[in-house]
Amino acid sequence: MADASSIYALTANRLDGTTEALSKYEGKVALLVNTASACGFTPQYAGLEKLYEELAPKGVVVLGFPSNDFGKQEPGSAGEIADFCQKNYGVSFPMFEKVKTTGDDASPVFKLAAAKHGAPKWNFHKYLVDRHGAVVAAFPSNVKPDAKELRAAIEAALAG
Predict the structure, then answer these.
(1) CATH classification of 7-159 is 1.10.3210.10, yes or no?
(2) Structure confidence by residue, pLDDT tens digits, 56-74
(3) Is 85 labeled as catalytic in the residue annotation?
């Protein structure tokens, strides 16, 4: 069972409103990403989906958390976000309800992720979570899903 310092000890609401225990992903390596539909980095959805499809059989999951924190670039409702992601990028990885990623009212997931690795500074910030739910690395928005340093960190987490 995940401990209190583990992302996998938390719950989050999916875009359809259902609450999901993140312990469902314990044993997998997760890439947590704060997403937005109207950002210059939005095309990273395609790379995240490709990464997910390629690495899911190895035990990697991408967890998308829409946020309107930066530039008000995620104004849509949960339904609009789901439609946008599916229609434009064929997103099949788990997507969660829009959350705050910074400040005192940040979601518990992002408070925990930021504790050792700093809060996101913009959309499409990525946190790498090991099989036990510990956040082991963070990558700024400009690090694309196919970046060598991100892929190397994922491989190291899978091996660990």
Answers:
(1) no
(2) 999 999 999 999 999 999 9
(3) no
